[in-house]
Specification:
It is globular, with a radius of gyration of 23 Å. 52% of the residues lie in helices and 2% in strands. Strands 1-2 form a two-stranded antiparallel ribbon. The chain folds into 2 domains: 10-66, no CATH class; 76-314, no CATH class. The longest helix is centred in the N-terminal third of the chain and has 41 residues, at 68-108. It contains 13 helices and 2 strands. Strand 1 (123-125) and strand 2 form a beta hairpin. By secondary structure, it is mainly alpha-helical.
């Protein structure tokens, strides 16, 4: 099917929203928002309130009391939430990296991350259809990210040394993305060292930490690329621990959570933040932006239970 839709002017975009039942208090201000944010980006925030299943409805709004300013309030809430999450995840990423580097380097030396015997053996098929190993793909990713780096310490190593080709762990892992770091940790063989990293972050089971890092990396990428997060359903379901070394929540409370909604990953972020950054004001900041979230904000859509503020991890 050939795509034939033509681009709409800002005025036409406004008129289309009006024809679908959206109300405007200030059309000139709305045009400014459409110019600076874009109709298509705001579509992610109007979509939940439109009839998108009936072709005859032409995406009309299902309520007649929604204003354009309500959509902007929701958009601004989402932007603030992304910023809060991104800042908290940055601290977790730095802390996890520091622990992995320190624990493994003390035992296995400067270039332990390239030691194939420390990893699980897993045959997989790459994008070209060739059978390879997870270890080999991981090393390709690591080498690629190191070579893309413009950090002075990486350039200094490459100018001064040629063996080993990659810099030591405390340099190499410093420039890895959280996604690659989570792959590395997940692929490491079960061992007292892997467990120690998890225990340092309050988790007795390293499989839980591996899952959390994977999920957090996915949410982190959404935040970094300015994607909608408030009502997103993640492609990664979060696994919850049966017991934790610090206050978290009961199994009954855990069973009420949605493993792919934003509140659940916020609980994981808050739990680790309580350990690496005691006194974190994440809860205070979330309460603040919820208060300014506007008329359309639905905490249930985000996976928040009614009593979330009283869960142990949020006290």
């Amino acid at each position: 099917m050939q795509y034939t839709k033509r681009p709409l002017s800002i005025q036409e975009q406004l008129q289309k929203l009006q024809s679908r039942g959206l109300n405007f208090d200030d059309e000139e201000l709305a045009k400014d928002y459409l110019t600076n944010i874009s109709y298509y980006r705001l579509r992610a925030y109007t979509y939940p309130f439109q009839d998108n299943t009936n072709p005859k409805a032409d995406h009309c709004f299902t309520r007649n009391d929604i204003k354009f300013s309500d959509i902007i309030d929701l958009y601004c809430f989402d932007r603030r939430l992304r910023n809060l999450m991104f800042n908290a995840i940055e601290k977790i990423e730095v802390a996890v990296r520091a622990r992995i580097v320190q624990v493994y380097s003390e035992i296995y030396g400067s270039h332990w991350f390239a030691n194939k015997t420390l990893y699980k053996h897993k045959d997989i098929t790459d994008k070209r259809g060739n059978v390879t190993t997870a270890y080999d793909l991981l090393m390709e990713e690591i080498e690629s990210e190191v070579n893309r780096s413009n950090e002075d310490f990486i350039k200094h190593y490459q100018d001064k040394y040629d063996n080993p080709q990659l810099p030591p762990a405390w340099m190499t892992l410093e420039v890895l993305s959280l996604g690659t770091l989570s792959k590395l940790y997940n692929l490491l063989l079960k061992s007292p060292l892997k467990k120690k990293v998890a225990k340092d972050l309050g988790l007795a089971d390293d499989r839980i930490l591996a899952n959390w890092l994977h999920a957090i990396a996915v949410w982190r990428n959404c935040c970094a690329h300015h994607s909608r997060v408030w009502n997103r359903r993640s492609i990664i379901n979060i696994c919850m621990p049966r017991n934790t070394m610090n206050p978290f929540m009961s199994q009954a409370e855990i069973r009420k959570l949605h493993p792919n909604k934003v509140f659940t990953v916020l609980c994981c972020i808050k739990y680790i933040s309580n350990i690496i950054s005691p006194g974190s004001d994440l809860k205070k900041n979330i309460l603040s932006i919820i208060g300014d979230g506007g008329n359309l904000l639905n905490l249930q859509e985000m996976g928040f239970p009614r009593d979330w503020k009283h869960l142990e991890v949020w006290k």
